[in-house]
């Protein structure tokens, strides 16, 4: 993705990169779309280059593998060992974060 290779890992991504990231993050399973949409609603103005790279790596996974990660049924190492790294783990934690005022069953 443009500008990510030359930017510092802690730089916040710009609107153009954010737009491309959102487009690339569209999924075939509604459940995944819900996680991803919630992620962007909460963090879109704060996403760093490092987090964008982690999210892009996650978006390369199949929908079923991504859902298994979201739900904690599998670990990164089980799905794809080379994804077991800090940037991907950070984004996965952000994707799993519960919005305020919601419990696990809602």
Can you walk me through this structure?
With about 110 residues, the chain is mainly alpha-helical. The protein has a single domain, classed as Orthogonal Bundle (DNA polymerase, domain 1), CATH 1.10.150.250. It contains six helices and no strands. The chain starts with 14 loop residues before the first helix and ends in a 10-residue tail after the last helix.
Short note summarizing the structure:
This is FAD assembly factor SdhE. This protein is 55% helix and 0% strand.
List the helices and strands and how they pair.
Blueprint: H1 15-24, H2 30-43, H3 49-59, H4 63-70, H5 76-79, H6 86-96
Helix pairs in contact: 3-6
Oligomer: single chain
Q: Overall mean pLDDT score?
A: 89
What is the radius of gyration computed over CA atoms, rounded to a whole number of angstroms? Answer: 13 Å
Say how many strands there are. Answer: 0
Uncertain runs with pLDDT below 50, 5 residues or more? none
Distance between the termini: 35 Å
Which strand-content bin applies to the residues? under 5%
Helix content: 40-55%
CATH superfamily (homologous) name: Flavinator of succinate dehydrogenase
Shape: globular
- How many domains? 1
Q: What name does CATH use for the topology?
A: DNA polymerase, domain 1
Structural class: mainly alpha
Examine the secondary-structure arrangement and name the CATH architecture.
Orthogonal Bundle
CATH class designation: Mainly Alpha
* H/E topology pattern: HHHHHH
Number of helices: 6
Largest sheet: none
Protein name: FAD assembly factor SdhE
Pfam families: Sdh5
Keywords: Chaperone
Family: Belongs to the SdhE FAD assembly factor family.
